[in-house]
Write a structure and sequence with these properties.
Elements: E1 15-22, H1 25-34, E2 41-48, E3 66-72, H2 78-99, E4 106-108, E5 112-115, E6 118-129, E7 135-144, H3 161-165, H4 171-192, H5 195-203, E8 211-216, E9 219-228, E10 234-237, E11 243-246, E12 250-253
Parallel strand pairs: 1-2
Antiparallel strand pairs: 2-3, 3-7, 4-5, 5-6, 6-7, 8-9, 8-12, 9-10, 10-11
Bound molecules: biotin.
Length: about 260
Amino acid sequence: MATRKSTVHLPTGYRLISCDSVGSTNDEAKRLALAGEESGAVLWAREQTAGRGRRGRPWVSPPGNLYCSLLLKADWPPFRASQLSFVTALGVCEAIDRLVDRPRARCKWPNDVLMQGRKLAGVLLESASEQSGQVDWLVLGLGVNIVSHPELPDGDTATDIKTETGVELGAQELLEAFVGCFDDRRRDWEAAGFGPIREAWLERAEGLGEMVRVTIDDEEVDGRFDDLAETGELVLVLANGERRRLSAGDVRYLRAA
Ligand code: BTN
């Protein structure tokens, strides 16, 4: 990754590695992790040519939006490490709210950020574990639509900050705000565990109490979105009253058009 000099203000403990164009900042972060890079590297690219989303989907990445990946290393058990994707989603919401008045950014399970019900940002967490089972390294990839957004398949809709607010943020200012908010929340999480993160996430959750459809591979589960479990699982109440916890899947809100 060819680096480029610019003054970007990050909290203590984070180091910027930036460039104009790269395949995927997550791939670069993983490569650096394997090459011995220390915890706290922040990879930022102005565009990606092979950006990736969850479930192997492409993440269209033209210039103007934010594409970054944080590399973290610590001895976390996998269930703790996966909580960091909620810390990331919350950090993005809080950074956006810090920079634009309204509408408020909201969380969609597992790790999307919405504005006015449309997808604004996504998080891709990738990690590797040691033989002991503890996480060796973890990469938190974040894409935020600032000035443009793609058409999404399957009737989902995306949006961007400029469309929703009229404000044209710079990727750098959003990156700085995000890493600052992420770090604040990460400190809360290290000190007090997942509880405060879960509460703040639920307070911002889109569609809490509403009917949703969750697609898990070929299975569809309909239920009322009731809670976020301490494990990060989505808790649904099904038509027969059964409470069902889901650890993966794509959520669709079953709202009348
Ligand atoms: C999702 O599917 O919602 C997650 C999208 C994550 C995209 C970001 S952009 C920066 C980083 N590099 C990638 O290739 N993907 C993540």
